[in-house]
Amino acid sequence: MVSRYRLTPLLLALLASPAFAAASNAALPAGATSIQEGYEDWRVACAQQGQATQCSMSQQQLQQNGQMVLAIELTKSDAGASGNLVLPFGLDLSQGAVLQIDDGAPLPLQAFKTCLPVGCIVPVSFDAATLDGLGKGKVLKISVAASDTEHKTTFGVSLKGFISAFNRITALSSEPN
C-alpha cells in the first residue's frame, strides 16, 4: 500500500461549506491564498475565502492502483478536533467502527453516517484528552467488520506528524487578520 496526499472530494466540500468558513477568521502567512504542507504522514491544507481561513489536516491511504483504502480529515473544533473517516465499501455498517490508539482502551463506538461514491463515512470527534493520546501514539487502529463474513478487519492510520499538523491548523486558525 502506498500513501499519497491529495485533496479529496470530501475535503473540497468541507472547505466550501459555510459552517466551516464561519469557524475561522484568520489570514494565511505572507498573504497566501492557500497552502499545502506536509508533516510526516499528515497533510495540512488551508484556503483563504474572503476574510475566513479554512484549514484541515488529512491522511489518505491508496493501493498501488490508486484506489483509496481510507482517508481521514480533521479540523479544529471548540472541543478539540472533528472530521470524517472514509472507509471502503463492503463493511457491516450496523456494527460501526471501533477506534483505538496503539494498544490502549478502545474509544467509544463510532457509527457510520452514510456511504457516498468515495466510500462510507464515519464522523469522528476527539476531545483534548484524546488529542493528547493521538499526539503521543504511533497508530490509530480502526476495527470494522466485513458485511459478508463479519470477519473483523483493522486499518491503521499513522500518527507520525499528527501533533505537528494539528498545532499548525490551530495556529493558522488563530492568527489575526
Question: Could you describe the 3D structure shown?
Answer:
The structure is a single chain. With 177 residues, the chain is an alpha+beta fold. 20% of the residues lie in helices and 42% in strands. The relative contact order is 0.21. The longest helix is centred in the C-terminal third of the chain and has 13 residues, at 162-174. The chain is built from four helices and eleven strands; from the N terminus they run βααββββββββαββα. The strands form two sheets. Strands 1, 2, 3, 4, 5, 6, 8 and 9 form an eight-stranded antiparallel beta sheet that branches. The chain has a single domain, classed as Sandwich (Immunoglobulin-like). The model is unreliable at 1-25 (pLDDT under 50). β4 (52-62) and β5 (68-76) form a beta hairpin. The radius of gyration is 16 Å and the shape is globular.
Topology:
Layout: E1 2-3, H1 9-16, H2 18-22, E2 34-39, E3 42-49, E4 52-62, E5 68-76, E6 80-87, E7 98-101, E8 114-116, E9 119-127, H3 128-136, E10 139-145, E11 152-158, H4 162-174
Antiparallel strand pairs: 1-4, 2-3, 3-4, 4-5, 5-6, 6-9, 7-10, 8-9, 10-11
